[in-house]
Design a protein that fits this description.
The structure holds two protein chains of two kinds.
Chain A: H1 2-15, E1 20-25, E2 33-40, E3 45-52, E4 58-60, E5 66-71, E6 76-82, E7 101-103, E8 105-110, E9 122-128, E10 134-140, E11 147-149, E12 160-162, E13 170-174, E14 182-190, H2 195-198, E15 206-214, E16 220-223, H3 237-243, E17 252-260, H4 262-269, E18 284-286, E19 288-302
Parallel strand pairs in A: 2-19, 4-7, 12-19
Antiparallel strand pairs in A: 2-3, 3-8, 5-6, 5-9, 6-8, 9-10, 10-18, 11-13, 13-16, 14-15, 14-17, 17-19
Chain B: E1 2-3, H1 33-50, E2 61-69, E3 79-83, E4 90-93, E5 99-105, E6 108-115, E7 119-120, E8 122-128, E9 133-135, E10 138-142, H2 153-164, E11 169-174, H3 175-180, H4 189-193, E12 199-200, E13 210-211, E14 219-223, E15 226-227, E16 232-233, E17 238-239, E18 246-254, E19 266-272, E20 281-286, E21 290-299, E22 307-319, H5 321-324, E23 333-346, E24 351-364, E25 382-399, E26 403-420, E27 423-444, E28 449-468, E29 471-491, E30 497-510, E31 514-528, E32 534-545, E33 547-549, E34 562-564, E35 572-585, E36 589-606, E37 619-635, E38 640-656, E39 669-672, E40 680-689, E41 694-703, E42 707-708, E43 711-716, E44 718-720, E45 727-729, E46 735-736, E47 739-745, E48 751-752, E49 756-765, E50 767-769, E51 772-781, E52 789-795, E53 802-807, E54 812-820
The chains are: A mainly beta, B mainly beta.
């Protein structure tokens, strides 16, 4: 309902675009340290990205900080500063954002074999900057869960499988992840094929669709029908309508399902309305803002019909 | 209320975030659905009992009747004096229905003299025998020679309240004034109400209003006494009330007596036209917004012994842009209203009224078909409709032995539905409906003592659902029964004093809780001056409310989403005190000054970080305070009428801070002024009538800046990529030159927008013709094009950072025409 209200507000604001106020220059904004840290159960490497509030197009970092994540029993993981590209997807040169100067600081920690981020554990984050800023956070990793429909065989880390998803709609069912606040589902599709393009439908090279299940007890979704909820105003409607019936057999699809904790759920669902931009609810306290959350992922890779050898159906 | 986030069973438990409970919460340990039914039955039985007139009839007689004008419309506030040369003359002031009554009369012949400013006084004689109750209507003719400028009905009603009541703060806008107050395209009663003292509006885009530091959902908005839950079109841009059908609007801004319940901040009663025309009349109009028509006429005297005639009207209004543009383009929005009323005068001096309203907003993008040619993204097809349904009947009846009965029964509902045409997994629905029954009885034991008491029963249900993508974001439904009883005395211990003690009890029963609130009310007034035209008054009272709207008042437009009090949703209790001075002078001048203080316990706010696994933490419960001063100087007679209203306010709210949970070294609560905390608000309202029939209306409003949360910085916005497990730019929210940013907000509502001011003008001229009349009008909103700030946008990702934004209405000229025949 809040979405519908925002839609109405946006429509009226658009109608009132003739009421734009004159632009005035401001002094620089506050210099705020921002923490981006989402622990990922089963991952061999954990990352913490530190950056400062923007100065124009410059995204400054926080080099030289001491970043630790500790367990309740006192076991401490020290994060080391590494190249920023270790922390991010792709390369800034490839982003559809111009003139950005990325100077954020990436810290990482390689886990012991088998990983030491386990479902149900509680972790505390501590960031101390070289100039004395102290930021803290606390997260409890959601409980372990498993996909029961379709039947999938996970790898030794218990987090991914490769099989062929059907090209029709399918109800995916999973077990409950204790204390998860939500499940974040994502579908990444490549090699869609040319049939729709030949009909004039705009089909991007990479299609990314997102779905969500709210609360730990909501453990079903209709694949791929329920995905793309947040992209329905973004993609060509005919593409989304085609997706209601399934993913084409020839396409490569990767489906990920994340059990998400309180902190990351709060970060992605947004806070109070503000016309200047998205407001994220911070789970970091002290001298910084940001997110210190945790997720438990399961990933199903479904290669298209050109895959060789071709995996078995899910 | 049951919140169900998922199909799974969720245990109900008290919200961890609910820090405070209003007094009397859970005082009654009944918590079964049966309790709701029992409450209603008890109340209904009591209502029935209260309607039975006193069994013991005295041997003395009585005379009762109504004071009417020549169109048989009641004349309120007419003074009726009874004398027979043997005892002290007695005077009774007719009520708003024109009813008067003299009881305990010894047999004999009496003279009744009725008089009222603007009418020729009339005398009648009547003989009373023992045990007889005589009914005698007195008809007054207008004194047009003596008073060429007809006295506004609103003035008389305010004066009646001044003379008869101790505590209530009542402000009235009558139909003629309403027409000259600029609305958006056409006259709008809710926008007119915003000009009264103690009332502020936060945005030009919304006709919602706040009274004396209360949130908008604390205003009870009534159409002929029946609640309208969301009285707005287009999220608040227009009200649902067709100005042609409005007789007057009365805002009770504080000091309500014990008879008022249901909301804590104000009561706004929109009264429909009730006068009886000689034949059938048609009134119509067209504005930039909508076209409208009203048909009204008299009910013929064919109902035998049941009724002696009456009046009726039916009005319709519809926006037309979608129809006009249809040949060339699809305009997806329209609004419509259908309203009607029948009023019957019963033979016994009573009145039966039936009011009905049906309104709809439709945003229909379902016909925007998928393009066969385009390569761009097509429009997301949707249909979104919302509206109110109201029907109610009232019966006001004088009874034997000096009792008067007033009974209302009604049904009101508001619902909203949003569907995406191509995606069946999206459902946004909300609905609230209420069945209500009220019965009040009143008796004057003497000139100095009057008793009023009543019973009420409401059955209310709500359903709110937000489903999309196979999951439920919000799912709540619930039912509740409210039984109410009150008694209040109006006592004149001396000629210059009015004292009104009263007591009200509200018993709320929902599916999982029962709550009782005992609300004492007290008011006193002391008159001064040779003609008792000045009065000091004091009112204190407790008020309660069992429904909340989740509407975010920081959004300039939005619809109400109502929830009911239950185990996890608090009820609202407000303790209020106000004191003031009122004065009336010759020439239609009046003035008042009031100071007030209010405390609210159980105000709610949507918990944006609620735990989806906890059904009970969707709302945060907090407390609020407000205090202020209202000054009104008004002139209601003569060619130049209007008022100046100055309001000073300081409001504050305190809520739990859920993000601090688990961090003991952080403050666990947050306090801030609400968005409607306008510290100084000044309205100057005037209407001038020239001898040539031109009416000029003007309104100038000045308000100090409203609070907002200032962005202190912005930062690049990332998400955790679900597949790759690393940070990925998050493309959510407004993008600044393609750069995704999130906002760092300063303390909530710490900053203030610049002062607001705006001048609106209306010019109307009535042209009389043999077939009727027509009134072309021109109005200009924001005459000097003041750029009042709606929002600021901060861009820190530019060098240097900038601030821009949107203003509210620019200069907006509009024209229209009204026709009557």
């Amino acid at each position: 309902l809040r979405g519908s209200e925002a839609l109405l507000a946006a429509a009226l604001l658009t109608a009132a675009s003739g009421c734009r106020l004159a632009e005035v220059a401001l002094p620089p904004g506050d210099d705020v340290l921002v923490v981006e840290a989402v622990l990922r159960a089963g991952a061999r490497r954990q990352h913490v990205l530190l950056h400062r509030s923007v100065e124009g197009r410059l995204i400054r970092g926080e080099p030289g900080a001491r970043v630790t994540v500790s367990m309740i029993d006192g076991t401490e993981m020290e994060f080391d500063q590494v190249d920023v590209l270790e922390c991010i997807v792709g390369h800034p040169d490839d982003w559809d954002v111009e003139d950005i100067e990325l100077d954020a600081s990436c810290y990482s920690h390689d886990m012991e074999p088998g990983g030491s981020i386990h479902p149900g554990q509680t972790f505390e984050l501590r960031v101390e900057t070289h100039d004395g800023i102290l930021a803290r956070g606390r997260t409890t990793v959601p409980g372990a869960f498993a996909i029961t429909v379709p039947e999938v065989t996970l790898d030794s880390f218990g987090s991914s499988a490769t099989c062929i998803l059907p090209d029709t709609a399918l109800e995916i069912v999973w077990t409950r992840s204790k204390d998860a606040w939500s499940y974040l589902a994502s579908l990444r599709i490549t090699n869609w094929g040319d049939e729709l393009r030949e009909q004039g439908v705009e089909v991007p090279a990479v299609i990314e669709l997102t779905g969500v299940s709210v609360s730990d007890a909501d453990t079903t979704l209709l694949f791929p029908t329920n995905l793309g909820l947040f992209q329905r105003a973004e993609y060509d409607q005919r593409l989304l309508l085609a997706l209601q019936n399934g993913v084409p057999e020839e396409a490569d699809a990767t489906f990920s399902l994340l059990a998400v904790d309180r902190n990351y759920t709060n970060a992605i669902r947004g806070g109070r309305f503000n016309p200047s931009g998205n407001v994220r609810s911070s789970s970091v306290v002290g001298g910084a803002i940001g997110v210190f959350g945790s997720v438990v992922p399961i990933i199903i890779r479904s290669p298209g019909d050109s895959a060789d050898p071709r995996p078995s159906p899910c | 209320m049951r919140y169900q986030k998922t199909p799974g069973e969720l245990a109900l438990r008290p919200a961890a975030g609910i820090r405070s409970r209003p007094p009397f919460a859970d005082a009654v340990g009944v918590s079964s659905p049966r309790a709701a039914h029992a409450t209603v039955l008890v109340v209904l039985a009591a209502v029935a009992i209260s309607a039975i007139p006193g069994a013991a009839q005295e041997r003395s007689g009585s005379i009762a009747g109504r004071v009417l004008d020549t169109a048989r419309q009641p004349i309120g506030a007419a003074a009726v004096t009874l004398s027979n040369g043997q005892v002290e003359p007695r005077t009774s002031l007719a009520d708003t229905l024109g009813n008067y009554r003299f009881g305990r009369l010894t047999p004999g012949t009496y003279t009744l003299r009725a008089q009222r400013l603007g009418f020729v006084a009339a005398e009648v004689r009547a003989t009373v025998t023992g045990g007889e109750s005589r009914t005698l209507d007195i008809v007054l003719t207008p004194d047009t020679l003596a008073l060429p400028e007809v006295v506004a009905a609103g003035r008389s009603a305010e004066r009646v309240r001044f003379e008869e009541e101790a505590g209530v703060t009542a402000r009235i806008i009558d139909a003629s004034m309403l027409k000259t107050l600029p609305g958006l395209g056409e006259a709008d009663v809710l926008r007119a109400v915003e000009l009264l003292p103690g009332v502020i509006s936060t945005s030009d885009f919304s006709s919602a209003f706040n009274v004396r530091g209360g949130s908008a959902d604390q205003n009870l908005i009534l159409l002929d006494g029946f609640p309208v839950f969301n009285p707005f079109h287009l999220g608040g841009v227009f009200s649902v009330f067709n100005s042609d059908a409005v007789d007057r609007a009365e805002l009770l801004a504080g000091g309500f007596g014990a008879e008022f319940g249901g909301r804590v901040s104000s009561v706004l009663n929109i009264e429909s036209r009730d006068e009886r025309p000689e034949g059938m009349e048609v009134t119509g109009g067209i504005s930039l917004i909508a076209s409208r028509i009203l048909l009204r006429g008299s009910v013929p005297d064919v109902l035998g012994r049941a009724a002696s005639g009456g009046s009726w009207f039916i009005s319709a209004r519809r926006s037309y842009l979608d129809q006009i543009l249809r040949p060339i383009a699809e305009f997806p929005y329209h609004l419509s209203d259908l309203q009607g009323r029948v009023s019957l005068e019963t033979r016994g001096g009573g009145r039966i009224g039936i009011t009905a309203y049906l309104g709809d907003d439709v945003l229909d993008l379902s016909n925007f078909g998928l393009s066969n040619q385009g390569t761009a993204t097509d429009i997301l097809r949707l249909r979104w409709n919302w509206g109110n349904r109201v029907i109610g009947a009232s019966w006001d009846q004088p009874l034997p032995d000096a009792w008067q009965l007033s009974t209302r029964v009604g049904y009101t509902a508001f619902s909203e539905h949003l569907r995406f045409i191509d995606f069946g997994d999206v459902r946004f629905d909300n609905r609230i409906e209420q069945v209500l029954l009220r019965s009040d009885v009143r008796r004057e034991f003497s000139d100095r003592l009057q008793l009023q008491m009543g019973l009420g029963a409401d059955l209310t249900g709500h359903t709110n659902l937000a489903e999309a993508g196979g999951t439920s974001f919000f799912d709540s439904d619930g039912k509740g029964a409210l039984g109410s009883a009150y008694a209040a005395f109006r006592w004149r211990p001396a000629s210059r004093w009015i004292v009104e003690p009263g007591l009200r009890i509200d018993l709320w029963t929902s599916s999982d809780t029962t709550r009782a609130v005992l609300s004492p009310r007290f008011a006193a007034k002391r008159f001064f001056g040779a003609e008792e035209n000045i009065a000091l008054k004091l009112a204190v009272g407790r008020y309660s409310q069992f429904v909340h709207s989740l509407r975010d008042e920081e959004l300039p437009v939005s619809n109400d989403t109502w929830v009911l009090a239950d185990r996890s949703v608090p009820h609202l209790v407000s303790d209020q005190v106000q004191a003031g001075i009122e004065a009336f002078w010759p020439g239609g001048w009046s003035a008042s000054l009031e100071v007030y203080g209010r405390r609210f316990d159980g105000v709610t706010e949507f918990n944006l970080v609620e735990d989806p696994n906890d059904a009970a933490d969707d709302l945060l419960a907090g407390e609020a305070t407000s205090f202020g001063l209202d000054i009104l100087v008004r002139r209601s007679e003569g060619s130049l009428t209007g008022w100046a209203a100055l309001s000073l306010l300081r409001a504050d709210q305190t809520f739990p801070e859920p993000l601090a949970e688990g961090w003991d070294d952080l403050p666990q609560t947050v306090s801030y002024p609400p968005v409607y905390d306008r510290r100084v608000n000044l309205d100057l309202v005037g209407r001038y009538r020239t001898r040539s029939g031109v009416e000029i209306g003007a309104r100038w409003n000045f308000g100090t800046g409203l609070p907002y949360s200032r962005p202190l910085a912005q930062y690049f916005s990332w998400r955790h990529h679900p597949l790759f497990g690393r940070s990925d730019p998050l493309y959510l929210g407004p993008e600044r030159d393609g750069m995704p940013v999130a906002v760092v907000l300063g303390p909530r509502n710490r900053e203030r927008y610049p002062p607001y001011h705006r001048l609106d003008l209306t010019v109307r001229k009535t042209f009389e013709r043999s077939w009727g009349s027509f009134v072309p009008y021109l109005q200009v909103l924001n005459v000097y094009n003041r750029r009042n700030v709606l929002f600021y946008f901060y861009d820190y990702n530019r060098a240097p950072p900038t601030r821009s934004g949107f203003s509210m209405f620019p200069i907006l000229p509009a024209a229209g025409i009204e026709v009557a025949f």
